[in-house]
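Notebook B, p. 112. Complex prediction, attempt 2.
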Amino acid sequence: MSPTTALSTSSSLTTLFPFSSSTTKSKPTNFTQFPFRFSPKNPTLNLTSSTARSAVSIEKEVLETERPDTFLRESDDDDKEPSSTSSVRARFEKMIRDAQDSVCQAIEAVDGGGKFKEDVWSRPGGGGGISRVLQDGAVWEKAGVNVSVVYGVMPPEAYRAAKAAATDQKPGPIPFFAAGISSVLHPKNPFAPTLHFNYRYFETDAPKDIPGAPRQWWFGGGTDFTPAYIFEEDVKHFHSTQKKACDKFDPTFYPRFKKWCDDYFYIKHRNERRGLGGIFFDDLNDYDQEMLLSFASECANSVVPAYIPIIEKRKDTPFTEQNKAWQQLRRGRYVEFNLVYDRGTTFGLKTGGRIESILVSLPLSARWEYDHKPEEGSEEWKLLDACINPKEWI
Amino acid sequence: MSPTTALSTSSSLTTLFPFSSSTTKSKPTNFTQFPFRFSPKNPTLNLTSSTARSAVSIEKEVLETERPDTFLRESDDDDKEPSSTSSVRARFEKMIRDAQDSVCQAIEAVDGGGKFKEDVWSRPGGGGGISRVLQDGAVWEKAGVNVSVVYGVMPPEAYRAAKAAATDQKPGPIPFFAAGISSVLHPKNPFAPTLHFNYRYFETDAPKDIPGAPRQWWFGGGTDFTPAYIFEEDVKHFHSTQKKACDKFDPTFYPRFKKWCDDYFYIKHRNERRGLGGIFFDDLNDYDQEMLLSFASECANSVVPAYIPIIEKRKDTPFTEQNKAWQQLRRGRYVEFNLVYDRGTTFGLKTGGRIESILVSLPLSARWEYDHKPEEGSEEWKLLDACINPKEWI
């Protein structure tokens, strides 16, 4: 796993920050921390460094009864109706909220039984989020789709890591904005894969105390899937849909982000990936900003066509107890990845984020058998082999 | 949670060190690390400090077909038959191996169906272990009882933290010896509690490069239990047995070690303990060494009388699906504690210990429901309340 990916990304439902999905139901979180991006330019900057432990204050969240039109501060919301001339912040927020709606609609339509339960929350000074969870549906065991907008303050080290400042002068803490969508979908049928996706956008203010130092921005995210059994046509369809989204923007994106995904979702102590990958990227700022906004939108909009046809094909496949036990063992791996490695989850647990939002990414149930080894050549063995030795699927 | 307990102890089956239960089945582990004891005398010494990351080499383990009489080096084994005049090392090893036998015999006798599977391993230069796992028995879902003996080298900081050296001169790396027993027992019936116990003994050599600096030693361990439902008579019986063992040695032991246990098995992100506690201690060296050896033996010998009568009473209690689901949710908490907080587990996963030995402490299955809240006043609520607000049971 490259240190870049290990320290800068999250597959938890809290999207951006562990603290982004809190509600008034949880205990007050008066102080929290910024999970720094790790940059090769500043390899000493990581979550365990002493700088990373310096807390920044964040307002307590308020539970809302209605969804507001926007979670942006008024000063940011340059148009009441986001248009092509609106700020990137406003258009990104609109994009993730539309994506949340369309994914949830598609899930409910296929599920036929389950309905999403929604929690809306905001912070007095701006920012907030919408958490939606469907549990014990007909098709999905547990499905969470969250969006959030956060205004916070990050230590100067994070700013400097993001882009080498034009000066050696050290700025003070930098206000930042972040917005994102994050989702984990665990179906019941062991032949139907789990899906995770997460797209996020960051902006910092320009440091006031360093004349000429720029505002910074970057995009991150990805979509990956985790079947318990390989249907080659499903894997090809999933990866092809990701590649198609990437290829519209840059032919290098898919191969780069496919590898990045394999590297990030690596369970080091098992020497296995948690699943069959997809795409993953972070810290993207060395392309045109409008192009990357369109790319992130394209990726988010590719979730339904990449995933739903596979679910429709597999949701009613007959299965044995053995198939279910294997799915449960693989879900044990999912739990291991999320609790041990995922930066958003581990950071969230340590810094007092809303636990139920953070851990909604965990499956409804999981299993650990001592020294379980699938029989060589079996379908279970084939899946494990593909998790140990990532393949090129298309 | 006090930092002392957080950083110095382990509830994983690897007892002492993450690397203590490896076998040749696993990948070679040529380098590993010493999970330092944390001492208030040296609060900067912890697992994430840069000193703690310095690797020390350890030999690869060899799978054995038979149990040797001892895992001690010949030079340590001052008597072929350990007696009251043998070294503490030899007597501690004998004690934990006897305890392993008697606990496994008691488990098999009550289970009636399941049998322990045994793995024996050693290291050419001395040390080794015996891992025993019973899976899918009639009464226990998963039961692991491991003993191990380790010879290693620890950085000087760990020695100095153990007892302030009489000199400011910094010694080189210090050879150490450690032996321990560790066990987690997960029954099937939701009214039958999970048990964990772990007793360990450490010795360092005297630093050769500092004339007069002493050899050091200390004891650690504990026994705690984790029911899904409270039967007050069971909790009282369990704690009384612990208190009785403690009171034979020092009337301050039970209250001190009961609190230490509540502090250690704390799931910070939930503000809950994982269960109803028991006793826990570490770094004990400020009593007579013979007395502490007897105390550790007494504690290990109290496991069967503390636990088995409760299992016999509860193993066949009729239960509903709802009871089972609640047990599974509590097992989810067990997984969270072990993967997120337990020092032995988290350290083992990061440093290449034998994964199957480390993770045999995880339950066969576990469950996570979004925002599950037991109804106030229900039996489930009472258990949760006792995990949030530790009680004095006797």
